[in-house]
Every structure is written in structure tokens, then in C-alpha cells.
Amino acid sequence: MNPQVSSKNDSAQEPLTDKNDTYQQPPEKSAEWQALSAWSIISNVVSTLKVLLSNGYAIIPIVYTGWQKGFSLQWSIAVISVLTLLITLSALIEWRKFRYRIQGNQLEVKKGLLFTKKNEIPLNKIQNVRFEQPFYFRPMDLATLVVETAGSKKDEAALAALDRKLAQSLKARLLKKPSITNDTHQVGRQDNSADDQARDLQDGKLIATRSLKQLVTYGLYQNNFIWFAIVAGPIAGQIQWEEIAKNPLVGEVFSWFALHTSHNVGLQLLTFFGLLFMFYAVISLISVIAAVLKYHPYQLKLLNRTLQRSGGVISHQQDALKTHRIQVIQFEQPALARVIGRWTLFFKQVAGQEIEERTKQNMLVPCVSNSEIAPLIANLPEVKDQKITIPERFIGIHITWFYRRVQLAIIPATIFSMFHLFIPDGPPIFNWFWGATIVVIGLLYLRYRQWGYWINDNVVWQHTGLIGQNWKRIPYNKIQSVKVTQTRTQKRAGLAYIELGLASGTLTLPYVPESVAQTIVTRSLSKTVNDHNNWI
């Protein structure tokens, strides 16, 4: 291997001050440790239940099997009672030991029973502040603030059950970047109070809204049928299909179907695809309902270089993302979205705690038409002077990538075929292995056909996909490192393997011409020389 690595100058620092960006020193009482409302116990219980439910799908087959064999009612009640008691006790202790305050230019949080843990979060390191108002807090006009920092794998702080006005005020103060002066004890004055800033955040420039119809469309083309199949698979494996088949009613249905379709293959296929469509329609309906409940009424605003997304029917949310934290803009178009000409835009930020519910997705704008893309992106201060349009074509990677992976896919099938020659009556898997190999090769070809790039003066575009397509816009000034690797075969063919290191993660362009790799390296380093702002 012949790796070449180029990195940005680590000495580049992000300026901490702006002319009109100052920070008001908190009043003395703000320096005192503040406790949360007792209503935060509810939030703690719900959070624990979410963790248990989100990580508990793996034990569904065990629970189902136990239910089939008969659980003891007394033991079931005892287990549920103990679990409920432990969760409630844990939430109560967490509430009693949780304290927070804004001290100088940082947010401080301490918690813990036997060992006290104290987090000191500099305000200029806060990446996002989420405002959440679950349905159980709405009657009391309470809300939760979730604070996230760059590179964090979990929430740095969650201030639950705050008065809504207080939450808005704290959010404005946390998002306000502090100014640094020569006197470390002196802080600049600001024109508006924290309450005024909170109102300003709500009155920012409206740059995007999504109607109920658009959210329904988003739910239709973005449904997670594959994930449903993964979760439902273990459950289906535990169902006693033989017992169901012996049911008299089921037997009558199958007999009627066989009687009327035994001599009509077309009717059999029509019935099969009809049932498949009905199943897909049910999954799509679930996806549509989830999209509407999570995002309606969708609004995206911009104020002081901060994006604010709000929405949610049951649990109202307000997400904030500073525009200079955006590393990559991703344009995603699933198969169905390609038919209707719609995109989903993701603003990919510094890797760590992503905004959209820890799903590795970032702040998004759903159901965007081609004509809406340029005006929407033009609102971002960092790219307001650039005309952003999705490239109409891309340059594909070299076909050698496909050939190498086909060889790897054929090797297991060949080995199984050799075993089959010596064991003619072997397992049925021998007969199906080549079929599976052909399917894998077909998927590899679709992947190869969709993988490519396009180079502009200020950015490099990556194109990927299978049936749908994804475009990622990668500015040169956000590239932290470029790693160019060549095997002996690649070197002889004049090809290279590029890894683009960004704060949001690593992007790959395999089997591209060596000249393209050198162009990306040169332009990335050139941007570093001329732009001393911090890449983050």
C-alpha cells in the first residue's frame, strides 16, 4: 500500500468574537445552583422506558416463546412491579441530585448519588440546543432543553420540566456566543435581554415550511420497510405456522383459493402482488403517520446564523443548528421520490450527537422540489454568494471496483459447488447458493453504476445509491484531511482510493483516476492556505 495523507493546519482557530456578537453577564443569582422541577421525574421515567424499549427488540422472541409456553402470572406481576419500582426510584434520585447553573461563559451541570459528576460546558462549544415539549408537559406549559456539543456521543445536558418561557430564555443565552476581552473578568454588553433574544429566535427569517400534503408525501417515499422486516423477522420465526395452517377457517380459505386459481397462473400472480401491495400500504401508512406526528407543522427559520426547526403534533420540538457547524449538505432521493421529483435535504453537522433522534441523520428539510433547492440553500450565510444546483450528471468510478467484488462473491459459491460434487445429497443450501450469488452480483452492479463524483471550483460532489440516489456536497474548506491510497494494481492502472476526512465523518471515492485525487488534495490545501477559519 502507498498511502499519502494531507491534513489541515491544526493551528487554525475559530474566531470567538464578532463585532455585534456579545454576551451579557448573568445576574448573581444565576451563579447559584438551580434545581429542576419535580415534574422532571416524569421525564426521567419516560427516558428510561425509551431506552428499554429501543434496545429491547432483541428479547421479543424470548418473551414470545415464554408466553407460548406459559408465563407464571405471579412471577410476571412481581417482575413488572420490581422493574417499575427501580425505574421510579432511579428517576427520583436523579431529580434530587441534579443541579445546573450558568457561571460566566459556561454551563455547569452536576449529578450523581455516590459519586458526583460535574460537567462544565463552554458556551462557544455548544453545537445545538433542542427545545422539546412532550405532550405530558403541555398542560403545565413546561419544556425540556437538550444541550449538545461537537463530537459528543450523547446529550451533554438535559434540563427537563422547565417553565416554557424560562426554557426559551435559557436557549437564547446558550446559543449566544460569548465575547473574549483583555480583562478576563469583563464581559461585553448586549443590546437585548435574554427574553428579547428568545422572542427574536421565534421571529427569525422563515426560509422553509412544509404543508400537511408534503409531509404525507415524505412519509410515503421515506417508509422504513426494510427495518420493519428486520424487527419482524425474529417474531415471524417464533410463530407456529403449522398450527395456523391446521386451523379450519384458514384451510377453507386456502381450498377456495386453490379451487379458483389452480388453472390460472395470472390470477395467482395478481393475488400475490395484491397482498404484497396491501402489506406495503400498511407500512407506508405507519410511516406517513410518524412523519406527520413528528414534523407537523414544519417550519425552518434562520436568525443570527442559526437554523431553527420546529414542529411536532404530540411532542413539540425546536432544534437549533449554527450554520457554520454544517459540514456537508446531503440531497437524498429514494426510488419513489425519483419518480415524483422530490428530495430530502440533510444538513450534516459535526459527528457526535445528531439532531434527528440519534438515527445518524441530521437536521432535515423533507419533500423539496428541484426548483426549491437553490433559493433554500441561498439563505445560508456561508454559501449565499454561490449558486447551488445538483449536478445533472456524474463521473463514475472505474469498473475495476465491480470486477474485484464479483470475484470475491463468486469464491464462496465455487467452494460450495465443489462440495456439492462430492456430496450430491447435501443440504438444500447448495442449490440456492448460486441464485443468492447472482442477486449479490446484481446489487453490486447497481451500486457500481451509482457511485461517482463531480468536481467544481469550491466543492466536490459524491454520488451514491442503489435504486435511489444520494448527492453529498463537500466544500473544500470543510475537508480536514485527504488520504490517498494505492495498491499495486491501482498504481499500474493509474487509479487511487480517496478518503475525505471531515468533522462529520469520512467519505470515500474508490477507484478514481490518480489525477482526480491530486486535484482534490491540491484544492483542499489551497483553501486551507487562504482561509484561516477553523474547519469546524
From TrEMBL:
It comes from Shewanella maritima. Keywords: Membrane, Transmembrane, Transmembrane helix. The lineage of its organism: Bacteria, Pseudomonadati, Pseudomonadota, Gammaproteobacteria, Alteromonadales. Residues 1-14 have a biased composition (Polar residues). The chain crosses the membrane at residues 49-67, 73-93, 215-236, 269-293, 402-423, 429-446. The keyword Transmembrane helix applies. This is YdbS-like PH domain-containing protein. It holds the Pfam family bPH_2. It comes from the Bacteria. Residues 95-173, 448-520 form the YdbS-like PH domain. Residues 1-27 are annotated as: Disordered.
